[in-house]
Task: structure prediction
Amino acid sequence: MIQNISVLGAGTMGHGIASVFAMHGYRVNLYESFDKVREGVMQQIWSELQFMVEEGYIPGTKVEETLSNITIYRELGPAVEHADYVIEAVPENMQLKQNLFQQLDNLCPKHTIFASNTSSLPLHEMTALLSEERKTRTMVCHWYNPAHLIPIAELSHFGNMSEEVFNEVYELYLRAEKQPVKVLKDIPGLIANRMLHALAREVFSLIEMGAASPEDIDKALKFGPGFRSATTGMLEVADMGGLDVWCTVENTLFKELSNSDRACGMMQDKVAAGKLGLKTGEGFFSYPEEIREQVKNDFNRRLIIQLKASRNYT
Ligand SMILES: NC(=O)c1ccc[n+]([C@@H]2O[C@H](COP(=O)([O-])OP(=O)(O)OC[C@H]3O[C@@H](n4cnc5c(N)ncnc54)[C@H](O)[C@@H]3O)[C@@H](O)[C@H]2O)c1
Result:
């Protein structure tokens, strides 16, 4: 049974993953090679936990309890030597991940299960330098950002591991109050990001053709398809609407939709001009310095409202 967890990389994803497991009572070793990130990460986790307390999602006692379950490491060996489950969240670079897994193979006990939070790299390539035995205990466990607030975790079951090992990890995610999705094919983007970017392609295309203002395009999503997506899946919605109706609409509409094989030109122009969104103050919308913190907090607050509501429908 998984008890000791090691998280590698304490950046955008790693610190949130560590926080979730620690909040659910697991001992978490958090390894980070960059001094500045390592020194600031406990403060960051503390402030996110504190925000959840202020929003009434967790009791105040959870803050200290969670923090006391996390130990920060600057050396890999001691961070993983007793691990039952290691998840890496280092930058998306094939060579980096391959080398890290190879090191882990020598440092971890035989029973340790390895996982990668990769967004796009194929599992069989990341595990190329691993022993055959360890390949049967290695998988993708893909979280969504912000990791401490978004329930989904996509867990790979690509045929390289036993049902028993997979179920051990599946149980772990259930105990951490995540919504694990079993992914059966090693396909780029797995399930959730493929659906997201199929939708995003059309959103960006609508913007480029001037079909509606940016505000109205986002409003149409939030109060239309997105509104029901939070509670009801696409296949359930199609069944409710009637598959004959969906067939008729799709036969007309699909040939009208964007089938672009690259990011939309308008977005590429913005990137070239340094308009990267919230972090630079301008993207599709504008974010003066004085409102940026508030924008982030409002985003997190809405996610917490959604999380609380989801307790009633999951
Ligand atoms: N950011 C997202 O929205 C998101 C969502 C899902 C999955 N992912 C995936 O998660 C992984 C991490 O992404 P991120 O956004 O957290 O990156 P990040 O750059 O924010 O964090 C990576 C951290 O790893 C550290 N690091 C670098 N090399 C290391 C090493 N050898 N050992 C230990 N730590 C090392 C860095 O100092 C950094 O703090 C990537 O594979 C990414 O594709 C990201």
The longest strand covers residues 138-143. The chain has a mean pLDDT of 97. Residues 193-310 form a domain with the N-(1-d-carboxylethyl)-l-norvaline Dehydrogenase; domain 2 fold (CATH 1.10.1040.10).
